[in-house]
Structure prediction request, 254 residues.
Amino acid sequence: MTRIVFYQLLILIIFACNLSAQSPQPTYQFKTDSINLFDKARNRLVPVMLYSPKTDKKFRNQKLVIFSHGYGENKGGDYQIYSYLTENLASLGYFVASIQHELSTDSLLAMKEPFKVTRKSNWERGVENIHFVLNELKIRFPYVDNRNLILIGHSNGGDMTALFATKYPELVDKIITLDNRRMPLPKTRQPKVYSIRSCDLPADDGVLPTAIDAKKYRIQIVALADTKHSDMDNDANTLQRREINSYLENFVRE
Prediction:
């Protein structure tokens, strides 16, 4: 039995058991807003899309999710093309901030190996963006629970997410990566680590934990049977969206 099949069978069983034990979660109308933050220390613009429940209800300890997009060749607008994920989380009561990591003036992402070296500066910049946005949100939205931060990222944004959790584990409750392929997932029980994998592109050696480490650190890896790496944004069809959102809902609630 291959490692990916082992993960798929094991995690699907865990997922089904956990899901059946949970009560339905209330849903809300959601609202969106865009803000352009400016980091004076780095002289850098950081555009952010905000997604939150549209309700008069006062949330107690409303959970914060920060989302990081995949590489978009500096064309811009990438922080808006995962709306099926961000809007769904907002409808479940989460406060979601999606960061535009790339600007047109940035250097293009390195395409030569070793990626853990050549792309490190890009990931470091993403980590700084996340840290900056987190601090700004603390000031602007003090009612949001920033002490139990959830980070989600796709592809290169997932590599940023993994690096942030490695550098600042005390700031993060859990991370969920969507097919990050270069930066190793942290081997830790805190923050909690989850990863949803595509059916077509493998991760580099050492990015995913071994079966032994996954069990030791309670890292959950899910393999999607019919979703390619490039179809994890809004290109996902209805069935793919439903499956990915189901896993995300379960992971953020654990």
Notes: Strands lie at 29-39, 44-54, 62-68, 95-99, 144-154, 172-178, 192-197, 220-223. The chain has one domain: 3-253. DSSP finds seven helices and eight strands in the chain.
